[in-house]
Automatic annotation (TrEMBL):
Main location: membrane
Domain of life: Bacteria
Membrane topology: Single-pass membrane protein
Keywords: Cell membrane, Membrane, Protein transport, Translocation, Transmembrane, Transmembrane helix, Transport
Location(s) in or outside the cell: Cell membrane
Statement: the UniProt record of this protein carries the keyword Heme: no
Organism per entry: Thermomonas aquatica
Protein's recorded name: Sec translocon accessory complex subunit YajC
């Protein structure tokens, strides 16, 4: 008997018993597929829906609409261009902003009531 046998166990091959089966390819790929599906329905799809609604709101924008920007500035649309919109925020004070900066279209008369 070797003196190292007490410190390092000797590996003996087992004669009986089968080796554990490796997981199948289907079960290996199932978890990532389920994870991607969950991410799509919880994160990607709602964001795409919000973008579509925002784009539709910007397309329906017309002169005289009362809007609020992402920066919190409220005003009335006086001019609409291809990429920019002119918003009147006070009498004689007009600001030119990008179309994408419009956060919401307010109901008519909201600015007068405020």
């Amino acid at each position: 008997m070797n003196p190292l046998d007490f410190l390092i166990p000797v590996a003996h091959a087992q004669a009986a018993g089968a080796a554990p089966a490796a997981p199948s390819m289907m079960s290996t790929l199932l978890f990532p597929i389920i994870l991607i599906a969950i991410m799509y329905f919880l994160m990607i799809r709602p964001q795409m829906k919000r973008q579509k609604e925002h784009r539709a709101m910007l397309d329906k924008l017309s002169k005289g609409d009362e809007v609020i920007t992402n920066g919190g500035i409220a005003g009335t649309v006086t001019e609409i261009g291809e990429n920019f919109i002119t918003v009147e925020i006070a009498n004689g004070v007009q600001v030119r902003i990008q179309k994408g900066a419009i956060a919401n279209v307010l109901p008519k008369g909201t600015l007068k009531a405020a």
